[in-house]
User: Fold this.
Amino acid sequence: MLEDREWTKTEGARPEGIRALADAAPEPLPKAYLQLLADTNGGEGPLPVQPLWLVLYPAEEVAQIARDATFEEFFPGLFVIGGNGGGEAIAIDFRGSHPSPIVAFDMTNSDIEESVRPLAASFEALLDMVGRDTA
Assistant:
């Protein structure tokens, strides 16, 4: 899926891990996201836009974050799927439009309006950027 791109791949998620993730999600997850997890259950690589790096969390970790409602108090409607490895989370934004956009937010700034910024119009658009360090 990310062939010929800079991406540190891991072994794909087991089907039961993907099912647990889908069950923990508040809305249906993008098919491209689930397909990526089946191919590489986590991994990391550059992005051509801020926050410049994507650390994709494994399906089991994302499911646990969702079940624990780790970000729900300050960042409701944001389904965290990864980070940048340096204090920013990357999430699917389930607060409005469909397909759901991908956003990044500063985990240390609890002001959702100030902290959240758009990253990609959809998960598919994010995939187009992953593994590229220039736009």
Q: What stands out?
A: Strands lie at 8-9, 43-46, 53-56, 78-83, 88-93, 102-106, 117-120. The CA atoms of residues 80 and 91 lie 4 Å apart. The radius of gyration is 14 Å. The longest strand covers residues 78-83.
